[in-house]
Design brief:
mainly alpha, three-stranded antiparallel beta sheet, two-stranded antiparallel sheet, Globin-like, 13 helices, Multidrug-efflux Transporter Regulator, Chain: A, Domain 2, about 5% strand, 2 domains, single chain
Length: about 300
Amino acid sequence: MTSRPPTAPPAARCHTGGVTEACPDDDGWTVGTAADAVGVTVRTLHHWDAVGLVRPSRRSAAGYRLYTPGDVARLRRVQVYRDVDVPLEQIPALLDAPAEEATRTLLGLRDRVRERADRLRTVADALDRLAEARDGGLPLSEAEQATLFGAGWTPEHVAGARRRWGDSEQWAEHAERAAGRTREDWDRLAREADAVQADLAAACRAGLDPAGDEARALAERHRAMLQASFACTHAMHVCLGRMFVDDAAFAAHYDALAPGLARWLRDAVESNARAHGVDPERATWPASGPPAVSPPPRGPSPRPTR
């Protein structure tokens, strides 16, 4: 009859770091078992052993290194310090410090962890806002959008812009900037845009020469308004000026502010580009795609929805 090996005795109970748990060996923990229990690699324990940080106190009858419950408790304290980025060479002094000093150190590390957690929550909130802006265009409620952009504004304006330009580099830049803005920032930008458009409309109604100095200054203010959303060069501004005439929705918006304003603005933009050394006939948009123009904040038809 084939004999069966004797049943192994029940595992001893080890009290480690305030937690009672099964000890895999009456004499202690093997390197692999200790590494699993602490959540580090065997290589890490070998390194800590080599530098004298935590050395296994016992050896088995076969010569294997074994960690006692006290050793494992020390390993766990080391890992706590490593989790909060305490340099390895500073840990021995912390482990062997008097109780009062150790308590002060631990409370200081706790405060550091809480500060880091607060920073991470801030980062997480910023990522939420960026994702919302990237997907939706404006990290504002529908009510806030209506207040800022006027009675003619609808959320479909943003949705249409997202469908049309969502994959462009300029839309990504617009979203990144939008995500970091406060309500006060939006209020200021809306007021500035209102002022620019009112002055453009007044100049057009007054019959101001679009090639004159005053018109060019207004065109430059208009470009600065767009630059609140993305980097807009003079060449890009020329491309937008043409779109303000060729795109029915944009043309309707500007012409509602003043009859003929879309063409007047295009001509002023091209004159301003020439003054800055850009030939409008050679102006092109970057290869990254069409522009993600911020909506003119107020007016009956502030943004195309195609």
